[in-house]
Amino acid sequence: MKTLIIVAHPNISKSVINKRFIEELRKDPEKYTVHELTSAYPDGKIDVDQEQKLVEAHDHLVLQFPIQWFSCPPILKTWLDEVLTQGWAYGRNGGDKLHGKKVALAVTAGIRQSDYQESGRYHYTLEQLLTPFETTFRYYCHADYRSFFAFYGAEIVPGEEYSSSTEEIEKGVKDYLEFLEKL
C-alpha cells in the first residue's frame, strides 16, 4: 500500500516541521511518494491530468500543509478546485476515482493546542475548522476519510517565548509516521 503525500507549503525552505516530516518520509520511498506542489508548480499552474494520474497510482492520499488563515495554503485550494473535477472525483459519469480511497490530512498548526479549543483563543477546534475537507472527501467524493494528524507548535508567537523543542518535533515525526501506518 503506497501513500501519496501532497505537500502544500508556501516556503518549505523556511519550514521547521513540514520540512522535517518530508525528510523522514523520503527515507521510505517504497511506502511514500512526497509531492511538493510549490516545487512542482512554481507558477501555480496545476497539470490536472498529471495530478489525477498520480492520485490514481496510489492507495492512500494525505494532504500535508500548515494551517494558514484557518484553512490551507492557496496552492492546495487551487489543487482541490482543479484536480477534483466532475466526472473524475465526483458526479455520475465516472466520478468515482476517490471512492473508497483512504484520504487524510496532516496539518501543522503553528500555535498551542489549547488555542484551538472552544474555550481557547480562537473558540474553534481544528476538527471544526477542517470540516470542509471532511465534507468534500467523505460526502462529495465518497472517499474513506480518515480524519487528520495535527502538530501544534513551532511558531514563535510575537511577544511570547514559545517554540517547539527538538524533542517535541521528533516526537511529532514519530507520531506522524504512526498515524500514516494506521491508515
Give a written overview of the molecule.
The structure is a single chain. This protein has helices at 17-25, 37-40, 48-56, 74-83, 126-129, 131-140, 166-181; strands at 3-7, 32-36, 60-66, 102-108, 144-151. With 183 residues, it is α/β, with parallel strands linked by helices. It is globular. Keywords: Oxidoreductase.
Descriptive labels:
34% helix; alpha/beta; 183 residues; 5-stranded parallel beta sheet
Secondary structure elements and pairings:
Elements: E1 3-7, H1 17-25, E2 32-36, H2 37-40, H3 48-56, E3 60-66, H4 74-83, E4 102-108, H5 126-129, H6 131-140, E5 144-151, H7 166-181
Helix pairs in contact: 1-7
Regarding quaternary structure, how should these chains be classified? Answer: single chain
Q: Give the number of DSSP strands.
A: 5
Strand order of the largest sheet: 2-1-3-4-5
Distance between the ends: 10 Å
Structural class: alpha/beta
Shape: globular
Low-pLDDT parts are: none
Helix segment tally = 7
For the biggest sheet, the summary is:
5 strands, parallel
Radius of gyration: 16 Å
Element pattern in H and E: EHEHHEHEHHEH
What is the mean predicted local confidence, pLDDT?
93
Kindly estimate the percentage of residues that lie in beta strands according to DSSP.
15-25%
